[in-house]
């Protein structure tokens, strides 16, 4: 049975994909022999050096030199030293049966690989992705009763495994949901109609990065044609893509193609009609004007979380009223765009700062609030170290301050917007290290993108051992992802201190 394991994550800068460990001038290719693995894809440190990766690189994105759409995320390991994590020698690449299928490779083949470099200067995030779901292990023409699969659970699992990984059309993934192994084949990406493309969204029609904002549309084989027709009735290109997909499906090897028993998808999302973009919302200002704004741009406005996350019943465009006037909101948008692009904020005149500060407070846009405060000379950075006692006192005074892997986060004002409800956090997560709880409740990892808004600093190094840690530690994979997502944390040499406490707890549990 083919297996699927989480892909190693590559670090990202300002929302765009980067291979920061690459020395862009000198990276080359390498001829590698394919070997089998059941775990994450691996190359050795020697091979990494040959490919031009830095000596401390832990992961990389590879593609076939002959040009494949599929991008392979590999971990770099120190050969034998990795023991249980898998072994790979110099000149080899260890990949799963599913990845071999995706790259049209098999064990023993010698192939030219090179580092994948994403397109420069344009966002690489997928706006939408479409996939066909079948049951792995069924038999063709099976009379077995169709299996019901909740698309929400499937989507969560997809995001858990592939969040910020590159997905390509025709790539297949094996996902375990509700005790079943399901085969998901990517049938299309970024299927925006011309109008939506004109909005300026990056348009890579065959691959891109899966993010929390990617719209995911899944179907089972029987419903594919209907959904394709509904989405783009006059799009010849897409029809051809579907025909190619169908042909590609026929090429699936026996082990994967056994997926023919019926799957009934529950809660599957319907595509919006042509011309309607789910990636935008209509922001209505307090003087009656409205702006179409990319949902992803507004994400740092934490006061809008519920409004932005709400699934749109019916097909009318989402409308988000804000208590900000048009001129000020225009400037807020300039700030949000700079924030999304990782650029310096626009230099607003001092007289503009008070209304902008008020808008920032209303929107819960902390970076703008801080920017205005700095400009007005009201404060410098809010970031600092906290003693454990200080956090307890803030909570005793009615606040909701979390400790997550040593980070100190103030979610007090955001509680009513928390998608998991306003009660669970104060009831369960205060005055302890909530990283395991956080891992368990947030499979989709969407929660990561909010952390920066709530970050006020770190628990003082000398107080870290005072913070009660749960019996069950967070997984090392989760901690790794968390650290990848929080490069902006205050630098503490013990940043992974709690991680090592958890490792100790894990070790003592094993013995
Ligand atoms: C900074 C802290 C937090 C952030 C930014 C956050 C964010 C989110 C987000 C975005 C979701 C919906 C998407 C998803 O399921 O991943 C969510 C759901 C949820 N959160 Fe949180 N959360 C935080 C802390 C916590 C804590 C400490 C707990 C538990 C004590 C918790 C419990 C839940 C629950 C139960 C759900 C619903 C899960 C489901 O429906 O499957 N959250 N949270």
TrEMBL record:
Residues covered by the Cytochrome b5 heme-binding domain: 383-460
A UniProt-annotated Pfam family: Cyt-b5
Domain of life: Eukaryota
Gene Ontology MF terms in the entry: heme binding; metal ion binding
InterPro entries: Cyt_B5-like_heme/steroid-bd, Cyt_B5-like_heme/steroid_sf, Cytochrome_b5
Protein name (database record): Cytochrome b5 heme-binding domain-containing protein
Family designation: Belongs to the cytochrome b5 family.
Keywords: Heme, Iron, Metal-binding
Gene3D superfamilies per record: Cytochrome b5-like heme/steroid binding domain (3.10.120.10)
GO cellular component term of the entry, any: membrane
